Amino acid sequence: MFAEFMNFLRACWQQQPSDASVGSDAVGKQDGLLWYKDCGWHVNGEFSMAVVQANSLLEDQCQIESGSLSSLESGPYGTFVGVYDGHGGPETSRYINDHLFQHLKTGFSSEQHSMSADVLRKAYQATEEGFFSLVTKQWPMKPQIAAVGSCCLVGVICGGMLYVANVGDSRVVLGKHVKATGEVLAVQLSAEHNAGIESVRKELQSTHPEDSQIVVLKHNVWRVKGLIQVSRSIGDAYLKRSEFNREPLYAKFRLREPFKKPILSSEPSISVQPLQPHDQFLIFASDGLWEHLSNQEAVDIVHSNPRNGSARRLVKAALQEAAKKREMRYSDLKKIDRGVRRHFHDDITVIVVFLDLNLVSRASSYRGPSLSLRGGGVTVPGNSLAPCA
């Protein structure tokens, strides 16, 4: 096992230092609007990562962190995955990328080095509060930051357990091997908060019984207050605190009536489960992928192809579907510039995390190679088509 592990490291990392910010291979590669890292190694196995930009400014952000999950080098060790799908601008998703994992490490250290749903919940809360402080500070000069927010999907593998937290409509899907049939089935692990889901609309109506317009069908799409599809997020201060829902915020974001309690929530849905020998891989992705591929289609693509390049393969499959829906060729879609590209598909982020149960079963004591990598992390000239870091 150790020899195989070392061979994989040499092939994937080309003998780069463990710091993922050093060297061109370590920070991934760029191909027009696509950034990708075809293969890498985290504490619990291999991973693949890809991001394709559609918006003028990349609103998706993502990261994978592997090694010590506390502020102490003594561990415990594990893997953290984050996918942050911004809306209204990139500020919130960038802020989450800069702060959420650090809040988790701080919480880990103060909770007797034990991972828990409470540690995740507090990390989300601290990130939300930190971003609101930024909104308050920038409001006089940049009031539109109050209308910027982000979905936030996190997975943590530690001690043989998988912790998943989510606000918004990004999704993580497990590929689970069924021994009896040999199939690999898709199992969705994250709860989503999108007004297009009937249970979400009912939840909003039950928490806001006095508001008959809490969800509105607008242009055949269900939206909270007719403005936004997600019911939970980080940011979106204009729908959480009434002091940010007034002039000089753009009129299209302002509600006619003041509200007394938050319309949107930042409370994450959290699940905790032990990893099993038949759990093969996890697909973390923003809704840009799931608009075009079903859970099972995505799992089948990963399962039936080599691990190397799995995330990029999923992005390509989604783009091919997007092109097909518009009756155009994939090759022509790829030529469309950022900004205009948003009319054809959203920013898409995919992180595929493979689970080596030999490594997972070593729990949180195994000190493997440390890793810190962000999607779209290549430094490029300002006039490039590359995603913003």
Automatic annotation (TrEMBL):
<dbReference type="InterPro" id="IPR015655">
    <property type="entry name" value="PP2C"/>
</dbReference>
<dbReference type="InterPro" id="IPR000222">
    <property type="entry name" value="PP2C_BS"/>
</dbReference>
<keyword id="KW-0460">Magnesium</keyword>
<dbReference type="GO" id="GO:0016020">
    <property type="term" value="C:membrane"/>
</dbReference>
<keyword id="KW-0464">Manganese</keyword>
<dbReference type="InterPro" id="IPR001932">
    <property type="entry name" value="PPM-type_phosphatase-like_dom"/>
</dbReference>
<comment type="similarity">
    <text>Belongs to the PP2C family.</text>
</comment>
<dbReference type="InterPro" id="IPR036457">
    <property type="entry name" value="PPM-type-like_dom_sf"/>
</dbReference>
<dbReference type="GO" id="GO:0046872">
    <property type="term" value="F:metal ion binding"/>
</dbReference>
<feature type="domain" description="PPM-type phosphatase">
    <location>
        <begin position="46"/>
        <end position="355"/>
    </location>
</feature>
<protein>
    <recommendedName>
        <fullName>protein-serine/threonine phosphatase</fullName>
        <ecNumber>3.1.3.16</ecNumber>
    </recommendedName>
</protein>
<keyword id="KW-0904">Protein phosphatase</keyword>
<keyword id="KW-0479">Metal-binding</keyword>
<dbReference type="Pfam" id="PF00481">
    <property type="entry name" value="PP2C"/>
</dbReference>
<keyword id="KW-0378">Hydrolase</keyword>
<dbReference type="GO" id="GO:0004722">
    <property type="term" value="F:protein serine/threonine phosphatase activity"/>
</dbReference>
